[in-house]
Design brief:
The complex is a heterodimer of chains A (about 280) and B (about 260). Chain A is α/β, with parallel strands linked by helices and about 280 residues long. Chain A has nine helices and twelve strands. Chain A has a single domain, classed as TIM Barrel (Alpha-Beta Barrel). In chain A, the strands form three sheets. Chain A has an eight-stranded parallel barrel with strand order 1-2-3-4-7-8-9-12. In chain A, strands 5-6 form a two-stranded antiparallel ribbon. In chain A, β1, α1 and β2 form a beta-alpha-beta unit. In chain A, α4 packs across α5 and α8 runs parallel beside α9. The longest helix of chain A is centred in the last third of the chain and has 19 residues. Chain A is globular. Chain B is mainly alpha-helical. Chain B has two domains: about 90 residues, no CATH class; about 140 residues, Outer Surface Protein A, domain 3. In chain B, the strands form two sheets. In chain B, strands 2-3-4 form a three-stranded antiparallel sheet. In chain B, β3 and β4 form a beta hairpin. Classes of the chains: A alpha/beta (about 280), B mainly alpha (about 260). Chains A and B meet through α2, β5, β6 and α4 of A and α1 and α2 of B.
Chain lengths: ~280, ~260
């Protein structure tokens, strides 16, 4: 079992002092490397101080692995410098794209999961792993468009990507729930079909209905984790066992204690599957 | 079903985001436009959020809604180019100064410039500040052969109104109501020492002195510039202030100039 199979929190600047001072057992934090690609200053100093006490995960949002352009070498180099400096226990990126033609679109954009896309993304994941000298985890996206032209289902595509590159998976349970709602598939079937051995990390976050009036759910990271997503998480844990699990919150950010209570809940659920209720553990 | 669709798809998706959803026809034959709006909104919000955070004093002066509406125009004209957006909107102050709806508030560009200098200082390289004794022990000859390197976080600004005071009032008291801009020049140094970014108001002499140092002039020439700008300036006090607030990170003698660090 992974030694860090405990729950962590997305690190927000407003919570630096509390994250540093927290005595919570097993707490780890995850940072977006793009927010630390600076020459100096307080953010790097805080991350350094927290890293002395806690494991850190680096979760990239900007490498644009599913673009039809190569990953930006300067961005990859900056990511490499952060990984060297902070020695994260996990590094992850998304099955999505955002950079094209000199424009960065701060979102995680979709693509048809074709064989050609698989070739290109596998090459890009390979570039990333070669540059960092380590395995990375790739996260399933939240989807909003019923695209046609796929050669693979998402789980098959991810499984094939791991087979070709040796990467692992970051399973975002909220993204599964949101995509299942938006595209009309069964979130339970998806969760049940993910190969457990490939999952190196789990993400939990909140979503919201589209205030534009459609029936879409939006992966806002602006609310507590929804009950239905907790239920999917428990279903996953019962099948594959504990994994490092992150509570993500990037908008409408509450106090540290509120996020810690969600984080503690994930930790308790993992403890429950380690020693299931109703079974007496004899020393 | 399109064959080897990846290369064409990305261009079509960018077109669709730009308002031509029919570009996605081969991949999106059915109605699915709601999803495109979600992507459009997320992309726009992501960039606006960065500007709203970087230009927080502007937001407090004009209101968050006004700033976000202006930022939306800016984002459409000058979208982000790189995934690390710590530097995004570096030219927003000049853009805002020329933004027609800001014509009635001509000081906004200056307020934005100070926010920009603050943000730049926050992420700049770390540097030690030099001590006063490092300068006072220099002989007059050495003053003519030594340059003072500005702290990497240091930024300078000059205004013909009391915009630095307005910015400070807003940042410190969280309120600028009752504050009246005076038609009186102000000069500012924004610099970070350790973790704290500070704005210091300078006289014209101090500003001239630091601008000369920034341009690589010797301390002697910089002192002359200070006196050109403010004949009655107290040079000793002025240099002491600059050192005390951490404006300099190194003294470089002329004989060292040009040698790599």
């Amino acid at each position: 079992m992974n030694p860090q199979a405990t729950a962590g929190l997305g690190l927000k600047p407003q919570h630096y002092p509390e994250a540093l001072a927290s005595e919570a057992a097993g707490l780890w934090v995850e940072a977006h490397p793009e927010n630390y690609m600076c020459a100096g200053g307080p953010r790097l100093a805080w991350l350094e101080a927290i890293r002395e006490r806690r494991p850190i995960s680096l979760h990239g949002v900007g490498l644009s692995l599913a673009s039809d352009e190569d990953p930006d070498p300067s961005h990859l180099a900056a990511l490499g410098r952060l990984a060297d400096r902070f020695q994260p226990f996990l590094v992850s990126e998304h099955l999505a794209w955002s950079q094209r033609g000199g424009v960065y679109r701060p979102d995680l954009l979709p693509f048809p999961r074709t064989r050609a896309a698989l070739d290109r993304i596998a090459a890009n994941v390979g570039r990333m792993q070669d540059a960092l000298g380590r395995q990375v985890l790739i996260e399933n996206p939240a989807l909003y468009l019923p695209l046609e032209g796929h050669d693979f289902g998402e789980v098959d595509f991810l499984r094939e990507l791991t087979r070709r590159t040796g990467c692992g998976l970051l399973l975002d349970v909220n993204n599964v729930y949101v995509s299942a709602n938006n595209l009309g598939f069964s979130a339970e079937s998806y969760i049940d079909s993910v190969p457990g051995a490939l999952v190196g990390e789990v993400h939990l976050a909140g979503h919201a209905p589209d205030d534009g009036g459609s029936s879409l759910l939006i992966d806002t990271h602006g609310r507590p984790v929804a009950p239905a997503v907790w239920a999917l998480y428990e279903r996953l844990l019962r099948r594959i066992g504990p994994r490092p699990t992150l509570i993500e919150r990037d908008d409408d950010i509450p106090g540290f204690a509120d996020l810690m209570s969600e984080r503690d809940r994930a930790d308790r659920l993992m403890a429950d599957v380690r020693s299931p209720k109703g079974q007496t553990v004899h020393a | 079903m399109p064959e080897a669709s990846t290369p064409d798809f990305h261009g079509a998706f960018c077109s669709a985001l730009a308002g031509r959803p029919e570009s996605l026809g081969p991949w999106l034959p059915a109605a699915g436009g709601d999803g495109l709006s979600v992507y459009r909104n997320t992309i726009l919000k992501g960039a606006i959020d960065v500007l709203a955070a970087a230009y927080g004093t502007v937001a407090r002066v004009v209101g968050e809604d006004w700033l976000r509406a202006a930022a939306a125009d800016y984002v459409r004209e000058r979208p982000p180019t790189r995934p690390s957006m710590l530097d995004y909107g570096a030219d927003f102050p000049e853009w805002l100064a020329a933004f027609p709806p800001a014509r009635d508030t001509p000081y906004l560009g200056g307020v934005a410039l100070l926010d920009r200098l603050w943000n730049r200082a926050y992420f700049a390289a770390d540097a030690e500040a030099i001590t006063a004794s490092a300068v006072t022990r220099l002989s007059p000859d050495e003053l003519g052969a030594t340059t003072a390197r500005l702290n990497p976080s240091a930024g300078l600004a000059a205004f013909d109104q009391t915009i630095a005071s307005l910015w400070l009032a807003q940042r410190r008291e969280g309120d600028f109501r009752g504050f009246e801009l005076q038609a009186q020049p102000e000069y500012a140094l924004v610099v970070r020492v350790g973790g704290d970014v500070e704005l210091h108001r300078l006289g014209p002499g101090g500003y001239g002195f630091l601008r000369a140092c920034e341009a690589g002039e010797t301390l002697l020439r910089a002192a002359e510039r200070a006196l050109d700008a403010e004949p009655q300036a107290d040079l000793e006090a002025l240099v002491a202030l600059c050192i005390q607030v951490g404006a300099f990170s190194a003294l470089v003698s002329a004989s060292d100039q040009g040698s790599p660090e």
